[in-house]
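Morning!

As promised:
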Amino acid sequence: MTIGLLSAVTFLPAAGAVLLAFVPRRAERALRGGALAVAILTFLVSLGLYTGFDAGRADYQFQENVPWMPALGVGYHLGIDGISLLLVLLTTFLTPLALASAWQAIEDRGKEFVITLLILESGMLGVFVSLDLFLFYVFWEAMLIPMYFVIGVWGGADRIYAAVKFVLYTMVGSVLMLVAILALWVQHGTATGTYTFDLPTLARWVVPTGPAQTLMFLAFALAFAIKVPLFPFHTWLPDAHVEAPTAGSVILAGVLLKMGTYGFLRFCLPLFPDASVAFGPVIFALGVIGVVYGAWVSTVQPDLKKLVAYSSVSHLGFVMLGIFTFNVQGMAGGLIQMVNHGLSTGALFLLVGMIYERRHTRLIADFGGLWKVVPAFSAVFLVVALSSLGLPGLNGFVGEFLILVGVFQVNPWLAALAATGIVFAAVYLLWMYQRVVFGELQNEENRRLVDLTPREWAVLVPVVALIVGIGVYPTAFTGLTEASIEALIAQVQAKASVALGPLPR
Amino acid sequence: MTPIPAPPIAVGTLLPTLIVVGTALLVLVLDLLPPRGDKAHLGAVTLAGLVGALLATLTAWGGRGRGFRDMVVLDNYALFFHVVIGYAAALVVLVSMDYVRRAGAESGEFYGLVLFATAGMMTLASANDLIVVFLGVELMSLSLYVLAGLFKRRRESSEASMKYFLLGVFASAFLLYGIALLYGATGSTNFDRIAAAGAAAPGDPLFVLGLGLLLVGFGFKIASVPFHMWAPDVYEGAPTSVTAFIATGSKAAVFAALIRLVIAGLRPPPPDATTVLWVLAAATMTVGNVVAIAQSNLKRMLAYSSVAHVGYMLVGLVAGGASGTGAVLFYLLTYTFTTVGTFGVIALCERAGEEAVAVRDYAGLGRRHPLLALALGLFLLSLVGIPPLAGFVGKFYVFGAAVRAGYVVLAVVAVLNSALAAYYYLRVIVYMYMQEPEGAPASLAPSLAGGLALAIALLGIVVLGVMPAPFVDLAQAAVAPLLR
């Protein structure tokens, strides 16, 4: 039996975790170094997916399909297309950075920490590469537990509350999705005689329009909306982000939230096109509310981490808008914005974590005048903040621009409203930056701060390089996805019984 | 007066049960012989007997043995349950060996009673006649009443025994009355003839009443709402390894009889009966989970959680058919491994010479005994239903069968319940990994046999979770003879 490239990428971190379990707890450096090596190796192997990927094809590539529970139609079916490729790469890219960022921050139970993080990586990768609903659900649920431990064991003062809230919130959404998966399985089985959980097979079939499709769509959508999080399901996010350790926040913002938006793209749209179109306006409205509300709430946060957390609500609102435009620009923008958000928000959390390690506070009011003390930190911070607010030339601009182009075709007024989100992003990010970095150095404790260490440089440089890279040459990334997105739109159009024109104005 | 002809003796159909009974008698005799001080060898003999019974079971697989005028059958269905019960008993004995010695209660009676209870459970699994059902229930229950009171000097243990006994005989009375009414309605105690008579005269009040009373009796034995009141007190007071046996073996055995009666006796099941089971299932899982949240004693919490798990199994029974019934069997298998494992960990932990039963006692266990905490954590996650562990696959099959049979609302109730349950199971994990102990923490009472039991149970929940297909096929093959 040969192991396919996708399986290798997915299970390499977990295999590494199992090996590390046998390393004695005292050998801390070996544990950290080993975990980092495993994560970097996973990234390098995943580059094979990038180089081997044929951007001209819209179908799934690197497929592996082995029967798992044939009696039920469950298969071990993996595969990626342009949509999942970027997210797989984002995951393998961010995990080593998260591990490196925790080099000193995690002092207690370092062995368990690196093992948990690696298992988490396997779970996340599995979500993105599964083409079988059962397998997808297994990864989707399984990855909750390591994240629960990351928040609950290594988090801040209120970590237990945040961890339990995170799990329960997510679980309520996903168990309903389980029923919907089963219902879909039964519907397909009774209609065609083949009981299967295979996504491509199910997606080829047209789910009959009607209340059943609506209910199944809503169950899927609830699970994904909680994960995104779409307003008003976002209340777990600030708690989880604030309490999680830096590495956890990076993974949470960088990858976990994308599972929600990815779920909409991969499952909701192709499986339930009618319901997706019908509920498009609702999701549009919630998306716009999220964009504006998230930005407003960010503005008034006194805590850096909370500010970044609420900014995620705003940014993910943009992504949702892009996905539900049902046009190529909007969807491609949404997808690239998922990656951008992972990079820039991940980097923001890394920077906040670095300053927290030095000062043990995250309150904006405790800082001011950092430019004079830590110029390098401040410069990187500026680039990342500008990327997050969508400055042309950096990555954030590309995604938001494409999304707004897409939204404009659907409804110019909504586009205008969403665009205010960008303005507010400039407000909260620049105002925060001004209070933290500029001005007089008022707090004496800030005078002794040390600038970026070589390890921190090593963590930040790759992110900043990509931030600039995507900004300058976005085609390298959007080009990978276009074929898949066009195929997805064609699929929705072909299957939806209602004409897929512009949404009602 | 014509003499009543003696039924032909068909020892083969009772072989696994007879091996267990024989071992029990052997243990009782050996108990009287030297060495009088040390009883460890009795545990070994017990295990050997159980392994022998399991082997006898495996050789009989695929057969269709019937004996004693169709009172006893040895079909795949019975054999599947024999395996589940045999595993439960063997793991319980492994967990008990050091546990009862530590409590100063190791004795020949203990092993003998475990074996007699096992024999009763096996009898239930192969019963095809209400009289045999009653025989099995009584043999099992009487042994368990005594086992619950094994720790004579502990007040809770005696209370548990007394309570279990008093409420248990009540349930037996209901059972007996139901049997009498069914006999009155159909003129037979044989399942096949009851089924035929029931189909010939549907809605006969005597028949319905008899079935209802039987359901009350069974409901008590499996601790389904509203007959679950005894469970928390008995689970809490009984010795932990006995609790594990009550929670797994006795439930599996009574379910075996219940399913055989419902599937074979009610064909097609009248809509009313399905509605009753629907309500029972929904109430059982909801009450179990909601009340479990409020518990601070781990054994009480697990008692309510096991009530909830009965609710999930009833969901499969409501779904019915090959897929629903097969799902219940598979669920019982996963539940047995998980539950014995969970109680096994508790049996290995002690605090200041006492059993560590408060959830608090487990604070910081993850730091002091990483392996034990990992094991308990995995068992609890399997109870929550987190993939890729056995509990998830069990739930998946049961809920899948329910959705397939059209009971979507019940499936929604069930999944929301399992999300609710996550809260209290995870709370134990919170204590183990995220809290520091106050005062003297729970410590580990080393036990090689107990460790072996935990390892087997862990292996079980991982294998059943990752490679469920062959075991599901077994469960399906087991229910096939019922649905002919």
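The interface with chain B takes residues 68-72, 109, 134, 137-139, 141-142, 144-145, 148-149, 152-153, 159-160, 163-164, 167-168, 171-172, 175-176, 178-179, 182-183, 185-186, 189 of chain A (CB under 8 Å).

Hope this helps with the figure draft.
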